[in-house]
Write a structure and sequence with these properties.
single chain, 410 residues, Rossmann fold, 2 domains, seven-stranded mixed sheet
């Protein structure tokens, strides 16, 4: 029987998925393999009658530069007792290629262990995909899709900043990010936003909604003192992932809840939540500032990949074949700044529960420190006297005191 490979994609879309799929398909078709794409992610992998897309060169050639994914994605997480080898045996599968973020990689890790226990000789290679840039690759190596999503996010965010300047308003923007703040930081730094709020900043204090609102007001006050009556603040949605349910519910926003009793944050605009709380606090302080919410997320996930990701994703796709030929399994394919391909074994980046650990923003890096020290605007102790014109207790809006950082040392 003809040898085959199977591709599946999990989680949410990211620019470059089709580039990876197309490149893998072309390389393995050239080598005489059958290339099968699964619609429905992991759910299809263990289904009795999976929905399979049989790739040929024409299909691969058509999709390589498109956004979205030619194979339908899914966030489904199979339980261990669902694992079986049916599809591998039926189609003489020699390689399983999984494309996804930390959840998809964690499941790929479990499958790799399952295949090894069952002594099933099938290789398993994961391609690190997420606009959140939070997979544990070497520092400076992005996850594919991040640069394209950030580029589109910056395009939108730039027009929002211009609207703020033109209308004399403030905008409160929320950016996707799960547990990490890479996307919010990248967009905010590119657009010279006066305040960027990410979960990693709260390394010395608990994250609360009150502290987030006070950071926003700190920037508004500082700009007032500078004679600037407009601005944009970007907040990573990742701040919510570090809060308990009680803190989230303090917002007064009415949530729906999932089967585990957790608030379903995906059903609400996080920017709306921050903006409502900000307006409430500004009203208490009798500060006349008009603000509006903006959400950055779904509109940047399926854009066409920029040139960086087109090259990067094709390199990763060809890297799959290189690692496969070397006998690598249970690993992520990575490419360094020169384009050289290396495996990053999933077992080496898992926690005690087998889950892949997220990569957070390095707040000790020089880049981070320069952005926050030189390009952010907020109240510090020397502003107290003039800030008292707007608030009775300006120290409550001191950037360093809110975060419990030492002044001028990020």
């Amino acid at each position: 029987m003809q040898k085959s490979i199977v591709l599946l994609a999990g989680g949410g879309p990211a620019p470059g998925i089709n580039t990876v799929i197309a490149t893998v398909a072309k390389v393995f078709l050239k080598a005489g393999y059958k290339v099968l794409g699964l619609n429905g992610g992991y759910k299809a992998l263990f289904a009795v009658a999976p929905d399979i897309l049989d790739f040929d060169f024409a299909l691969a050639d058509r999709i390589h530069k498109e956004g979205g994914s030619a194979i339908q994605m899914s966030r489904y997480k199979p339980k261990d007792n669902e694992f079986n080898a049916d599809i591998f045996i039926k189609y003489n599968v020699k390689l399983l290629v999984t494309i996804g973020g930390d959840d998809t990689a964690s499941t790929a890790n479990r499958i790799a262990k399952y295949l090894k226990r069952k002594k099933i000789r099938i290789q398993n290679i994961h391609v690190p995909k997420t606009i959140d840039n939070d997979l544990p690759l070497p520092e400076g190596t992005p996850t594919f899709g991040y640069h394209s999503a950030k580029s589109e996010g910056v395009r939108i965010a730039t027009t929002i900043y211009e609207d703020a300047r033109t209308s004399g308003n403030w905008f409160i923007m929320s950016a996707m990010g799960r547990e990490a703040g890479h996307l919010a930081f990248g967009i905010g730094a590119a657009c010279h936003y006066p305040m960027i709020i990410i979960p990693e900043m709260f390394n010395k204090t608990e994250i609360t909604l009150d502290k987030i609102i006070r950071l926003i007001i700190s920037s508004i006050l500082k700009r007032r003192l500078l004679g600037i009556n407009y601005g944009v603040v970007v907040v990573s949605e990742g701040v919510f992932h570090s809060m308990g349910n009680d803190e989230i519910e303090k917002s007064g926003i009415i949530f729906t809840y999932d089967e585990h009793g957790h608030p379903e944050l995906g059903n609400l605009s996080k920017a709306h939540i921050f903006n409502v709380l900000l307006q409430k606090k500004l009203k208490e302080l009798k500060i006349d500032v008009k603000s509006r919410p903006v959400e950055i997320g779904y509109e940047i996930r399926c854009v066409q990949p920029v040139a960086y990701d087109l090259v990067y994703c094709a390199n990763l796709g060809m890297g799959i074949k290189k690692l496969y030929d070397q006998g690598v399994t249970g690993a992520m394919v990575t490419a360094d700044h020169k384009g050289d391909i290396y495996p990053l074994y999933l077992k080496d980046v898992e926690d005690k529960d087998g889950k892949i650990k997220p990569r957070l923003v390095n707040i000790h890096s020089e880049k981070f420190k320069m952005v926050y020290q030189d390009n952010q605007q907020y109240i510090v102790d020397e502003d107290y006297d003039t800030a008292q014109y707007y608030v009775d207790k300006p120290e409550q809006y001191d950037f360093f005191k809110i975060l419990n950082w030492k002044a001028e040392k990020v």
